[in-house]
Amino acid sequence: MSFTLPRYFLRFHLSFTSRTASTRAKNNHGYLFLAPKANTTKFTTASIPGDKPQKLSAEELLVVVGGGAAGVYGAIRAKTVASNLNVLVIEKGKLLSKVKISGGGRCNVTNGHCADNLVLADHYPRGNKELRGSFFNVHGPTDTMSWFVDKGVDLKTEDDGRVFPVSNNSSSVIDCLLSEAKCRGVSLQTGKLVTSASASASGKFLLKIEKRTLKSVELVEADYLLIASGSSQQGHNLAVQLGHSIVDPVPSLFTFKIEDAQLVELSGVTFSKVIVKLKLENVQRNIPQLTQVGPMLVTHWGLSGPAILRLSAWGARYLYSSGYKGKLIVDFVPDLHVEDLKSMLSQQKNRFLKQKVLNSCPMELQLVKRFWKYILDREGLVGDTLWASVSNSSIVSIANLLKHCTFEVKGKGQFKDEFVTAGGVPLSEIHLNTMESRIQPNLYFAGEVLNVDGVTGGFNFQNAWSGGYIAGSTIGRLAAGNANLVGAL
Asked: Which cofactors go with this protein (predicted)?
């Protein structure tokens, strides 16, 4: 494994087993690297002597771990506030990869129907109490939308509050962020992994960065560190190395697997409004959030849609501990009282005695024929049954089934547009007004690396934008203040 040592800010006297190495400098992405001559033996980690790093520049460095929404947004903000600050973003994969796939490739930027911060905070199963403070006041959905519009990304707000670029293409958002980063002078490096971090007595961070393809290692000393690595283990490991604890991550935002051969026949059927209630053996008390209202979709493996996804988010930890098994009770006609429903069905019977039940679903219910057949099949009413043959007890049973239809949840699927976890660095360990660690000075967090997750609808990205903006602003102000102090000296 070979080493390249960036000018931020290391100078090591490299010694070899059989010879004394000389150094040569080369430029790479704006950094000066010190590396062994080509004809010398390459180094392993054990070959690095313990000399104290020496700073070669008066300029300060911010290293951002993670090139997602929070990391890139935070990097841009820091560089905007402090143009003198060197900002380096390290990403192990592709930049803004989740931005690219979110919203079916359209990128659900934020939610435009939550002007009230208390209402907005209620969309975060983890973080709903903590985010009621100043967090969204500093940079909320309106600020996010203004930022992108000012940068040339036209946005639109759909009926459910989700905000998308007018282009309906996530590349509009990605191109905007990358262009702004480049314009500001942010250095973006991919294919690299920050594998270790430690803080020196002087408060600097010594980072070990591995390049995945060439198996080389860089050692970087940074003045500020922003961990915005999403739910990846990388960020959790670094947080622990720097003294933080981690709330064990579990999946959030997923679909329900339902074992029901008849339900499979309904794949693709949607319901504009249902009430779904989750019953779990390990949860005996009443939890209001385990009941959700909204649209639902039947898939070839079970149930999905906004109502199910919200339920999975609020029930994430309960579902995890129950092995993703439980009972789901669905009200398919939430705007009708059960007695009114019974009366409607009785009237339907009296009006269409000689018609087949299958061909004569009450129009007011607005149920597709495939689903009506499913309900009748569950009640044992075959397709040729006439309304005249339907007993009053069957009418009561049909009404109860439409209001309280029970499904056995046998597991979880995944929501292809979101990869969200519940868990991460506890919010009690950071200052939300600055995003700085309460444990380690000059260490910051933003985005999903924290124990914050939102329901579907643009809320997870808003957490990323807000946290990145606050962290970047704080770091930028500190760096600008230090630069002014040095200038005055």
From this structure: FAD
Report whether 138 contacts 466 (CB < 8 A): yes
pLDDT tens digit string along 247-285? 999 999 999 999 898 999 999 999 999 999 999 998 988
Q: What is the pLDDT of residue 488?
A: 65
pLDDT means over runs of 10, the chain (489 residues): 41 29 32 30 28 51 98 98 98 96 94 94 96 95 98 97 98 98 98 96 95 88 98 96 97 93 94 97 90 96 94 96 97 97 97 95 95 95 91 97 97 75 97 98 98 96 98 98 74
Architecture of domain 61-250+423-488: 3-Layer(bba) Sandwich (3.50)
Is the distance from CB of 69 to CB of 464 less than 8 angstroms? yes
Distance of CA 173 to CAs 99, 106, 144, 149, 264, Å? Answer: 8, 9, 12, 10, 37
3-state helix, strand, coil in the chain (%, to 5): 35, 25, 40
The rounded distance, in Å, linking the Cα atoms of 258 and 327 is 10
54 residue type, one letter? Q
Q: Which two tokens stand for residue 222?
A: 């940074």
Query: What residues are paired with 205 via a beta bridge?
Result: 199, 222
Q: Strand 2-6 vs strand 31-36: parallel, antiparallel, or unpaired?
A: antiparallel
Rounded distance, CA 40 to CA 19, Å?
8
First to last CA, the chain: 42
Q: What is the pTM of this model?
A: 0.85
Q: Which helix (H) or strand (E) holds 320?
A: helix 316-321
DSSP string, 56-114: --SS-EEEEE--SHHHHHHHHHHHHH-TTSEEEEEESS-TTHHHHHHHHHT---EETT-
Q: Where are the beta strands (DSSP E) in 305-404?
A: 326-331
